[in-house]
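Lab channel / #folding
Pinned by the channel admin:
"Please post every new chain as: sequence first, then the structure tokens as a reply. Keep commentary short and put observations after the output so the thread stays searchable."

First post following the new format, from NK:
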Amino acid sequence: MAKRKFKLTEAERKELLGAERLCKDGATRTRYPAVGLYGEGDPEKEIERITGCNRTSLLEGCRADREDHAQGRVDKRVGGNRAKLSTLPIEELQNTLQPYMPQARLGRKASTAAGQFWTVEDLVVLVRERYAVEYQSRTSYSSLLRLCGFSYQKTEKIFYLQATTCQVWSPTGQTPIVRADPGRAKTNFSGTLNLQTGQEIAMRSDLMNAEVSAQYLEMNLEANPELPILLLWDRAPGHRGKPIDPVLEENPRLEISFFPPASPDLNPQEQVWKAVRKVVSHNHLEVRLPELADRFLNHLNSTAFKSSFLDRYGYSAICPRFN
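Reply from TO:
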């Protein structure tokens, strides 16, 4: 029996896997794993049983692979993001990503404060600055991360400091770990978003009750002297009570309107909490809660948060007519 000459190197196997992930054509996508198994020495009948790729298609794939090992592996359609993907030096990009955290490569441009794990937002910045390439879809950046040996994983916890976790891109086989505190230490934040300017007024407190809410209302009044204020509030228990009544009586320019019960989707402040958690507290590296809380509060008070709330309900179109 003739000795099989067709073999794949480790680098060629990785390239073949990347081409399979990018391919949208079903028949071509089936051929890639068949060629890979053939290159590893598997019998033709076993390959057909596993992949469904017949001998003719298998040998055609191997021939195309050997004629041009790059073009034989990719979907032949051209243009758009797919053409850009094929022009990037994947191995160079992989060496740029895998040994380093985003903080080391991007500094303050990293999408999260800790800069510990790569995100699509980080890759957008890196690819644009290094290769002058931009893609129209987040899917293209996800494909690049997979080509570079990353997979989308949920972080594990080791008890150290309480942390929220989210899925992140990490080298395949290396599950990221975030330390978390088994204790019950916590802190609270009150926040109000100015729907016209995007500025946030935030306050940190150890408790969340009517007394704290009254103090927070006073803070809002001081931050907006002389101006009428319409405060849209959720129905948290601490947003009602006797300590709040005197503040409203002494300040008729402050009016409170409550959202319907169980409707966080209507409250634009919920999007602020989500955005700040993503930047500051998801998968964080802080070892003490006070430092983490300070970072959270500073980000709230120093960042402008865009909201479509006013446009959604016609304010921007109607109110200027009455000015």
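NK: The domain at 188-312 is CATH 3.30.420.10 (Nucleotidyltransferase; domain 5).
TO: also worth noting, The first helix runs from residue 10 to 22.
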